[in-house]
Amino acid sequence: MKNYFKFAELGTNYRRETIGGITTFLSMAYILILNPITLALDTVEDLPEALRMDHGSVFVATALAAAVGTLLMGLIAKYPIALAPGMGLNAFFAYTVILTMGIPWQTALTGVLFSGIIFVILSLTGIREMLINAIPSELKIAVGSGIGLFITFVGFQNAGIIVNDDAVLVGLGDLTDGNVLLAILGIFITVILMTRGINGGIFFGILITGLIGMLAGVVPKPDGVIGAIPSISPTFGAALEPIFNSPGDLFTLQLLIVILTFLFVDFFDTAGTLVAVAQQAGLMKGDKLPNAGKALLADSSATVVGAILGTSTTTAYVESSAGVAAGARTGFASIVTALLFLLSLFFYPVLGVITASVTAPALIIVGVLMVSGIGGIDWKKFEIAVPAFLTIISMPLTYSIATGIGIGFIFYPITMIVKGRAKEIHPIMYFFFIVFVLYFIFIF
Protein backbone atom coordinates (compact mmCIF):
# COMPACT_ATOMS: atom_id res chain seq x y z
CA MET A 1 0.00 0.00 0.00
CA LYS A 2 2.80 2.42 0.91
CA ASN A 3 4.62 1.68 -2.34
CA TYR A 4 1.48 1.93 -4.46
CA PHE A 5 0.71 5.42 -3.18
CA LYS A 6 4.40 6.42 -2.98
CA PHE A 7 4.32 7.47 0.68
CA ALA A 8 8.10 7.84 0.93
CA GLU A 9 8.39 9.94 -2.24
CA LEU A 10 5.63 12.30 -1.13
CA GLY A 11 6.75 12.44 2.50
CA THR A 12 3.56 11.15 4.07
CA ASN A 13 2.30 8.28 6.23
CA TYR A 14 -0.89 6.47 7.23
CA ARG A 15 -1.64 8.86 10.07
CA ARG A 16 -1.41 12.00 7.93
CA GLU A 17 -3.44 10.44 5.14
CA THR A 18 -6.12 9.21 7.54
CA ILE A 19 -6.46 12.60 9.23
CA GLY A 20 -6.55 14.28 5.82
CA GLY A 21 -9.26 11.91 4.60
CA ILE A 22 -11.39 12.50 7.70
CA THR A 23 -10.95 16.27 7.37
CA THR A 24 -12.08 16.21 3.74
CA PHE A 25 -15.16 14.18 4.66
CA LEU A 26 -16.17 16.58 7.42
CA SER A 27 -15.65 19.54 5.09
CA MET A 28 -18.05 18.20 2.45
CA ALA A 29 -20.44 16.01 4.46
CA TYR A 30 -23.05 18.75 4.20
CA ILE A 31 -23.89 17.40 0.72
CA LEU A 32 -25.48 14.37 2.39
CA ILE A 33 -28.08 16.74 3.84
CA LEU A 34 -28.38 19.34 1.10
CA ASN A 35 -28.58 17.07 -1.95
CA PRO A 36 -31.69 15.10 -0.89
CA ILE A 37 -33.47 18.30 0.14
CA THR A 38 -32.60 19.93 -3.20
CA LEU A 39 -33.44 17.03 -5.54
CA ALA A 40 -36.60 16.12 -3.64
CA LEU A 41 -37.66 19.80 -3.89
CA ASP A 42 -38.59 19.69 -0.21
CA THR A 43 -38.78 23.48 -0.02
CA VAL A 44 -41.31 23.80 -2.86
CA GLU A 45 -44.93 23.69 -1.73
CA ASP A 46 -47.96 22.40 -3.67
CA LEU A 47 -45.83 20.33 -6.04
CA PRO A 48 -47.17 17.06 -7.48
CA GLU A 49 -45.45 14.10 -5.87
CA ALA A 50 -44.57 12.73 -9.30
CA LEU A 51 -42.14 15.64 -9.73
CA ARG A 52 -40.35 14.93 -6.45
CA MET A 53 -37.55 12.44 -6.06
CA ASP A 54 -37.66 10.18 -3.01
CA HIS A 55 -35.69 11.85 -0.19
CA GLY A 56 -34.31 8.64 1.34
CA SER A 57 -33.37 7.14 -2.01
CA VAL A 58 -31.50 10.31 -3.03
CA PHE A 59 -29.65 10.23 0.31
CA VAL A 60 -28.42 6.71 -0.40
CA ALA A 61 -27.56 7.56 -4.01
CA THR A 62 -25.62 10.61 -2.82
CA ALA A 63 -23.56 8.64 -0.30
CA LEU A 64 -22.88 5.78 -2.74
CA ALA A 65 -22.00 8.07 -5.67
CA ALA A 66 -19.60 10.00 -3.41
CA ALA A 67 -18.06 6.78 -2.12
CA VAL A 68 -17.62 5.24 -5.58
CA GLY A 69 -16.31 8.43 -7.17
CA THR A 70 -13.88 9.18 -4.36
CA LEU A 71 -12.67 5.58 -4.33
CA LEU A 72 -12.03 5.70 -8.08
CA MET A 73 -10.14 8.97 -7.71
CA GLY A 74 -7.98 7.46 -4.97
CA LEU A 75 -7.23 4.13 -6.63
CA ILE A 76 -6.94 5.20 -10.28
CA ALA A 77 -5.58 8.77 -10.18
CA LYS A 78 -4.07 8.43 -6.67
CA TYR A 79 -5.14 11.96 -5.75
CA PRO A 80 -6.40 13.13 -2.32
CA ILE A 81 -9.50 14.55 -3.98
CA ALA A 82 -13.04 13.59 -3.03
CA LEU A 83 -16.08 13.58 -5.28
CA ALA A 84 -19.81 13.93 -4.62
CA PRO A 85 -22.92 15.31 -6.32
CA GLY A 86 -22.06 18.94 -6.98
CA MET A 87 -23.74 22.00 -5.55
CA GLY A 88 -24.99 24.17 -8.39
CA LEU A 89 -25.45 21.17 -10.63
CA ASN A 90 -28.09 19.78 -8.28
CA ALA A 91 -29.75 23.22 -8.16
CA PHE A 92 -29.79 23.32 -11.97
CA PHE A 93 -31.24 19.80 -11.99
CA ALA A 94 -34.04 20.64 -9.55
CA TYR A 95 -34.95 24.28 -10.10
CA THR A 96 -34.22 24.71 -13.80
CA VAL A 97 -34.64 21.31 -15.45
CA ILE A 98 -37.59 20.03 -13.38
CA LEU A 99 -39.37 23.18 -12.17
CA THR A 100 -38.71 25.62 -15.03
CA MET A 101 -38.40 23.34 -18.06
CA GLY A 102 -40.92 20.81 -16.79
CA ILE A 103 -38.71 17.84 -17.62
CA PRO A 104 -39.48 14.73 -15.50
CA TRP A 105 -36.72 13.88 -13.05
CA GLN A 106 -36.27 10.49 -14.71
CA THR A 107 -35.46 12.18 -18.03
CA ALA A 108 -33.23 14.67 -16.21
CA LEU A 109 -31.27 11.72 -14.81
CA THR A 110 -30.95 10.41 -18.37
CA GLY A 111 -29.45 13.78 -19.29
CA VAL A 112 -26.93 13.40 -16.47
CA LEU A 113 -26.15 9.87 -17.69
CA PHE A 114 -25.56 11.06 -21.27
CA SER A 115 -23.35 13.93 -20.08
CA GLY A 116 -21.31 11.44 -18.03
CA ILE A 117 -20.88 9.10 -20.98
CA ILE A 118 -19.78 12.00 -23.18
CA PHE A 119 -17.38 13.08 -20.42
CA VAL A 120 -15.92 9.55 -20.33
CA ILE A 121 -15.31 9.68 -24.08
CA LEU A 122 -13.72 13.12 -23.81
CA SER A 123 -11.53 11.88 -20.95
CA LEU A 124 -10.24 9.03 -23.11
CA THR A 125 -9.34 11.36 -26.00
CA GLY A 126 -7.56 14.65 -26.51
CA ILE A 127 -10.82 16.51 -27.11
CA ARG A 128 -11.02 17.64 -23.49
CA GLU A 129 -8.04 19.98 -23.90
CA MET A 130 -9.63 21.49 -27.00
CA LEU A 131 -12.86 22.23 -25.13
CA ILE A 132 -11.03 23.70 -22.16
CA ASN A 133 -9.14 26.05 -24.45
CA ALA A 134 -12.22 26.96 -26.49
CA ILE A 135 -14.09 28.76 -23.72
CA PRO A 136 -12.40 31.90 -22.37
CA SER A 137 -11.35 31.82 -18.75
CA GLU A 138 -13.49 34.87 -17.93
CA LEU A 139 -16.66 33.02 -18.94
CA LYS A 140 -15.63 29.96 -16.94
CA ILE A 141 -15.23 32.19 -13.89
CA ALA A 142 -18.51 33.94 -14.64
CA VAL A 143 -20.41 30.65 -14.78
CA GLY A 144 -19.06 29.56 -11.40
CA SER A 145 -19.77 32.94 -9.85
CA GLY A 146 -23.27 33.08 -11.30
CA ILE A 147 -24.07 29.66 -9.89
CA GLY A 148 -22.79 30.91 -6.53
CA LEU A 149 -25.24 33.83 -6.59
CA PHE A 150 -28.04 31.52 -7.67
CA ILE A 151 -27.37 29.10 -4.80
CA THR A 152 -27.23 31.98 -2.32
CA PHE A 153 -30.56 33.28 -3.61
CA VAL A 154 -32.08 29.80 -3.20
CA GLY A 155 -30.67 29.68 0.33
CA PHE A 156 -32.29 32.99 1.28
CA GLN A 157 -35.57 31.76 -0.19
CA ASN A 158 -35.43 28.43 1.63
CA ALA A 159 -34.78 30.29 4.87
CA GLY A 160 -37.76 32.58 4.35
CA ILE A 161 -35.46 35.59 4.59
CA ILE A 162 -36.36 36.53 1.00
CA VAL A 163 -39.98 36.04 -0.06
CA ASN A 164 -42.26 36.84 -2.97
CA ASP A 165 -43.51 40.42 -3.23
CA ASP A 166 -46.07 41.16 -5.92
CA ALA A 167 -45.11 44.84 -5.99
CA VAL A 168 -41.32 44.49 -6.38
CA LEU A 169 -40.93 40.74 -7.11
CA VAL A 170 -38.96 39.96 -3.92
CA GLY A 171 -38.83 41.38 -0.42
CA LEU A 172 -37.76 40.71 3.15
CA GLY A 173 -39.57 37.90 4.95
CA ASP A 174 -41.05 37.70 8.44
CA LEU A 175 -38.03 38.05 10.72
CA THR A 176 -40.13 37.06 13.75
CA ASP A 177 -40.88 33.58 12.36
CA GLY A 178 -39.11 30.77 14.23
CA ASN A 179 -37.70 29.10 11.11
CA VAL A 180 -36.41 32.41 9.76
CA LEU A 181 -34.77 33.26 13.08
CA LEU A 182 -33.16 29.80 13.19
CA ALA A 183 -31.76 30.30 9.67
CA ILE A 184 -30.34 33.73 10.59
CA LEU A 185 -28.75 32.22 13.70
CA GLY A 186 -27.32 29.46 11.51
CA ILE A 187 -25.76 32.03 9.20
CA PHE A 188 -24.00 33.70 12.13
CA ILE A 189 -22.80 30.33 13.50
CA THR A 190 -21.49 29.13 10.14
CA VAL A 191 -19.81 32.45 9.35
CA ILE A 192 -18.03 32.38 12.72
CA LEU A 193 -16.85 28.80 12.20
CA MET A 194 -15.64 29.50 8.67
CA THR A 195 -13.97 32.76 9.65
CA ARG A 196 -12.08 30.92 12.37
CA GLY A 197 -10.87 28.47 9.73
CA ILE A 198 -12.43 25.42 11.38
CA ASN A 199 -12.30 22.38 9.07
CA GLY A 200 -15.81 21.19 8.35
CA GLY A 201 -17.24 24.56 9.38
CA ILE A 202 -20.25 24.24 7.05
CA PHE A 203 -21.07 20.73 8.25
CA PHE A 204 -20.68 21.62 11.92
CA GLY A 205 -22.74 24.74 11.33
CA ILE A 206 -25.60 22.56 10.07
CA LEU A 207 -25.33 20.20 13.06
CA ILE A 208 -25.19 23.00 15.66
CA THR A 209 -28.07 24.90 14.04
CA GLY A 210 -30.10 21.70 13.79
CA LEU A 211 -29.49 20.88 17.45
CA ILE A 212 -30.58 24.37 18.51
CA GLY A 213 -33.66 24.01 16.30
CA MET A 214 -34.55 20.71 17.96
CA LEU A 215 -34.16 22.20 21.45
CA ALA A 216 -36.36 25.13 20.41
CA GLY A 217 -38.99 22.85 18.92
CA VAL A 218 -38.53 24.25 15.40
CA VAL A 219 -36.86 21.14 13.97
CA PRO A 220 -38.36 17.65 14.50
CA LYS A 221 -36.37 15.30 16.70
CA PRO A 222 -35.05 12.11 15.06
CA ASP A 223 -36.22 8.68 16.15
CA GLY A 224 -32.60 7.71 16.66
CA VAL A 225 -29.05 8.31 15.53
CA ILE A 226 -28.33 5.03 13.73
CA GLY A 227 -30.94 3.13 11.76
CA ALA A 228 -31.77 1.10 8.68
CA ILE A 229 -30.51 2.29 5.31
CA PRO A 230 -33.38 3.68 3.17
CA SER A 231 -34.32 1.84 -0.02
CA ILE A 232 -32.69 3.06 -3.21
CA SER A 233 -35.24 1.35 -5.46
CA PRO A 234 -37.30 4.55 -6.18
CA THR A 235 -34.37 6.10 -8.10
CA PHE A 236 -32.10 3.19 -9.00
CA GLY A 237 -32.09 2.66 -12.76
CA ALA A 238 -34.65 5.44 -13.35
CA ALA A 239 -32.19 7.11 -15.74
CA LEU A 240 -32.57 4.13 -18.10
CA GLU A 241 -36.39 4.21 -18.19
CA PRO A 242 -36.80 7.05 -20.76
CA ILE A 243 -34.30 5.33 -23.07
CA PHE A 244 -36.52 2.25 -23.34
CA ASN A 245 -39.98 3.68 -22.61
CA SER A 246 -40.01 7.09 -24.34
CA PRO A 247 -36.89 7.53 -26.52
CA GLY A 248 -38.65 10.24 -28.53
CA ASP A 249 -38.51 12.58 -25.52
CA LEU A 250 -34.71 12.45 -25.60
CA PHE A 251 -34.26 14.00 -29.05
CA THR A 252 -35.13 17.58 -28.21
CA LEU A 253 -33.20 20.84 -28.23
CA GLN A 254 -34.31 21.32 -24.64
CA LEU A 255 -32.61 18.13 -23.44
CA LEU A 256 -29.53 18.94 -25.56
CA ILE A 257 -29.16 22.20 -23.63
CA VAL A 258 -29.53 20.27 -20.36
CA ILE A 259 -26.84 17.76 -21.34
CA LEU A 260 -24.45 20.48 -22.53
CA THR A 261 -24.94 22.43 -19.29
CA PHE A 262 -24.33 19.38 -17.11
CA LEU A 263 -21.25 18.55 -19.18
CA PHE A 264 -19.91 22.11 -19.31
CA VAL A 265 -20.20 22.87 -15.60
CA ASP A 266 -18.89 19.49 -14.47
CA PHE A 267 -16.01 19.50 -16.94
CA PHE A 268 -14.56 22.85 -16.01
CA ASP A 269 -15.42 22.65 -12.33
CA THR A 270 -13.51 19.38 -12.10
CA ALA A 271 -10.55 20.65 -14.10
CA GLY A 272 -10.28 23.77 -11.92
CA THR A 273 -10.56 21.78 -8.70
CA LEU A 274 -7.93 19.27 -9.79
CA VAL A 275 -5.41 21.98 -10.60
CA ALA A 276 -6.12 23.99 -7.44
CA VAL A 277 -5.84 21.04 -5.05
CA ALA A 278 -2.84 19.54 -6.86
CA GLN A 279 -0.99 22.86 -6.65
CA GLN A 280 -1.71 23.09 -2.93
CA ALA A 281 -0.45 19.53 -2.39
CA GLY A 282 2.69 20.14 -4.46
CA LEU A 283 1.74 17.46 -6.99
CA MET A 284 2.10 19.59 -10.14
CA LYS A 285 5.01 18.82 -12.47
CA GLY A 286 5.83 22.22 -13.89
CA ASP A 287 2.57 23.47 -15.40
CA LYS A 288 1.25 19.98 -16.00
CA LEU A 289 -0.97 17.81 -13.84
CA PRO A 290 0.20 14.17 -13.72
CA ASN A 291 -2.56 11.59 -14.20
CA ALA A 292 -4.99 14.32 -15.31
CA GLY A 293 -6.63 11.93 -17.76
CA LYS A 294 -7.14 9.30 -15.06
CA ALA A 295 -8.56 11.90 -12.68
CA LEU A 296 -11.06 13.12 -15.29
CA LEU A 297 -11.93 9.50 -16.10
CA ALA A 298 -12.64 8.83 -12.43
CA ASP A 299 -14.87 11.91 -12.27
CA SER A 300 -16.81 11.11 -15.42
CA SER A 301 -17.25 7.47 -14.42
CA ALA A 302 -18.64 8.61 -11.07
CA THR A 303 -21.21 10.75 -12.89
CA VAL A 304 -22.38 7.71 -14.88
CA VAL A 305 -22.63 5.61 -11.71
CA GLY A 306 -24.38 8.42 -9.82
CA ALA A 307 -26.96 8.89 -12.58
CA ILE A 308 -27.82 5.18 -12.53
CA LEU A 309 -28.08 5.25 -8.73
CA GLY A 310 -30.31 8.31 -8.86
CA THR A 311 -28.51 11.59 -8.26
CA SER A 312 -27.34 14.63 -10.18
CA THR A 313 -23.84 15.10 -11.58
CA THR A 314 -20.93 13.95 -9.42
CA THR A 315 -17.90 16.22 -9.44
CA ALA A 316 -14.60 16.92 -7.64
CA TYR A 317 -14.92 18.99 -4.45
CA VAL A 318 -12.66 21.92 -3.71
CA GLU A 319 -13.22 21.12 -0.01
CA SER A 320 -10.58 18.45 -0.61
CA SER A 321 -8.11 21.29 -0.04
CA ALA A 322 -9.00 21.10 3.66
CA GLY A 323 -7.75 17.52 3.72
CA VAL A 324 -4.58 18.52 1.90
CA ALA A 325 -4.02 21.26 4.46
CA ALA A 326 -4.33 18.58 7.15
CA GLY A 327 -1.60 16.49 5.50
CA ALA A 328 -3.19 14.40 2.74
CA ARG A 329 -0.98 13.84 -0.29
CA THR A 330 -2.11 10.56 -1.86
CA GLY A 331 -5.13 8.58 -2.92
CA PHE A 332 -5.12 6.73 0.39
CA ALA A 333 -6.80 9.78 1.94
CA SER A 334 -9.54 9.45 -0.68
CA ILE A 335 -10.07 5.82 0.32
CA VAL A 336 -10.59 6.96 3.92
CA THR A 337 -13.09 9.60 2.78
CA ALA A 338 -14.94 7.04 0.62
CA LEU A 339 -15.27 4.63 3.57
CA LEU A 340 -16.73 7.43 5.72
CA PHE A 341 -19.35 8.14 3.05
CA LEU A 342 -20.32 4.46 3.18
CA LEU A 343 -20.48 4.60 6.98
CA SER A 344 -22.75 7.65 6.81
CA LEU A 345 -25.48 5.50 5.24
CA PHE A 346 -26.38 4.24 8.72
CA PHE A 347 -26.96 7.78 10.08
CA TYR A 348 -29.99 8.65 7.96
CA PRO A 349 -32.34 8.93 10.99
CA VAL A 350 -30.53 12.02 12.25
CA LEU A 351 -29.47 13.48 8.89
CA GLY A 352 -32.89 12.93 7.33
CA VAL A 353 -34.79 15.27 9.69
CA ILE A 354 -32.69 18.36 8.94
CA THR A 355 -35.00 21.06 7.55
CA ALA A 356 -34.51 23.79 4.93
CA SER A 357 -34.08 26.49 7.58
CA VAL A 358 -31.10 24.56 8.92
CA THR A 359 -29.44 23.97 5.54
CA ALA A 360 -30.11 27.45 4.13
CA PRO A 361 -27.02 28.97 5.82
CA ALA A 362 -24.86 26.31 4.14
CA LEU A 363 -26.23 27.26 0.72
CA ILE A 364 -25.51 30.91 1.38
CA ILE A 365 -21.93 30.24 2.49
CA VAL A 366 -21.28 27.89 -0.43
CA GLY A 367 -22.40 30.76 -2.67
CA VAL A 368 -19.82 33.01 -1.05
CA LEU A 369 -17.10 30.45 -1.78
CA MET A 370 -18.19 30.05 -5.40
CA VAL A 371 -17.96 33.77 -6.27
CA SER A 372 -14.46 34.07 -4.81
CA GLY A 373 -12.85 33.85 -8.25
CA ILE A 374 -14.74 36.81 -9.69
CA GLY A 375 -11.61 38.97 -9.42
CA GLY A 376 -10.11 36.93 -12.26
CA ILE A 377 -12.40 38.69 -14.75
CA ASP A 378 -10.87 41.71 -16.53
CA TRP A 379 -13.68 44.19 -15.85
CA LYS A 380 -11.79 47.00 -17.58
CA LYS A 381 -12.34 45.37 -20.98
CA PHE A 382 -15.97 46.06 -21.84
CA GLU A 383 -16.16 43.31 -24.44
CA ILE A 384 -15.31 40.82 -21.67
CA ALA A 385 -17.20 42.51 -18.84
CA VAL A 386 -20.58 42.50 -20.63
CA PRO A 387 -20.93 38.74 -21.32
CA ALA A 388 -19.36 37.90 -17.95
CA PHE A 389 -21.68 40.22 -16.03
CA LEU A 390 -24.79 39.10 -17.92
CA THR A 391 -23.88 35.46 -17.26
CA ILE A 392 -23.54 36.12 -13.54
CA ILE A 393 -26.59 38.32 -13.00
CA SER A 394 -28.95 36.39 -15.27
CA MET A 395 -28.77 33.16 -13.27
CA PRO A 396 -30.42 34.41 -10.07
CA LEU A 397 -32.70 36.90 -11.85
CA THR A 398 -34.11 34.33 -14.30
CA TYR A 399 -33.86 31.50 -11.78
CA SER A 400 -32.03 29.47 -14.40
CA ILE A 401 -28.37 28.49 -14.68
CA ALA A 402 -28.82 27.46 -18.32
CA THR A 403 -30.33 30.84 -19.21
CA GLY A 404 -27.38 32.64 -17.64
CA ILE A 405 -24.89 30.55 -19.58
CA GLY A 406 -26.86 31.02 -22.78
CA ILE A 407 -27.03 34.82 -22.50
CA GLY A 408 -23.32 35.07 -21.79
CA PHE A 409 -22.38 32.75 -24.63
CA ILE A 410 -24.53 34.74 -27.06
CA PHE A 411 -23.09 38.13 -26.12
CA TYR A 412 -19.44 37.02 -26.04
CA PRO A 413 -18.91 36.56 -29.80
CA ILE A 414 -20.97 39.71 -30.51
CA THR A 415 -18.89 42.00 -28.28
CA MET A 416 -15.62 40.41 -29.39
CA ILE A 417 -16.46 40.81 -33.10
CA VAL A 418 -17.54 44.44 -32.66
CA LYS A 419 -14.31 45.11 -30.76
CA GLY A 420 -12.30 43.69 -33.66
CA ARG A 421 -11.14 40.60 -31.78
CA ALA A 422 -12.96 38.00 -33.92
CA LYS A 423 -9.74 36.06 -34.52
CA GLU A 424 -9.55 35.31 -30.78
CA ILE A 425 -12.90 33.51 -30.80
CA HIS A 426 -12.65 29.74 -30.98
CA PRO A 427 -14.93 28.11 -33.60
CA ILE A 428 -16.60 26.07 -30.85
CA MET A 429 -17.91 29.33 -29.33
CA TYR A 430 -19.81 30.00 -32.57
CA PHE A 431 -21.38 26.56 -32.22
CA PHE A 432 -22.49 27.43 -28.68
CA PHE A 433 -23.81 30.77 -29.99
CA ILE A 434 -26.04 29.01 -32.54
CA VAL A 435 -27.24 26.39 -30.04
CA PHE A 436 -28.29 28.97 -27.46
CA VAL A 437 -29.94 31.26 -30.02
CA LEU A 438 -32.04 28.29 -31.15
CA TYR A 439 -32.70 27.49 -27.50
CA PHE A 440 -34.20 30.92 -26.79
CA ILE A 441 -36.18 30.92 -30.05
CA PHE A 442 -37.78 27.49 -29.74
CA ILE A 443 -37.85 26.81 -25.99
CA PHE A 444 -39.17 30.16 -24.72
UniProtKB/TrEMBL annotation:
It comes from the Bacteria. Keywords: Cell membrane, Membrane, Transmembrane, Transmembrane helix, Transport. The keyword Membrane applies. InterPro entries: Azg-like (IPR045018), Azg-like_bact_archaea (IPR026033), NCS2 (IPR006043). The chain crosses the membrane at residues 21-41, 56-76, 83-103, 109-127, 139-163, 175-194, 201-219, 251-275, 330-351, 358-377, 389-413, 425-443. It is found in: Cell membrane. It is a multi-pass membrane protein. PANTHER family: GUANINE_HYPOXANTHINE PERMEASE PBUG (PTHR43337:SF11), XANTHINE/URACIL PERMEASE C887.17-RELATED (PTHR43337). Belongs to the nucleobase:cation symporter-2 (NCS2) (TC 2.A.40) family. Azg-like subfamily. This is NCS2 family permease. It comes from Siminovitchia sediminis.
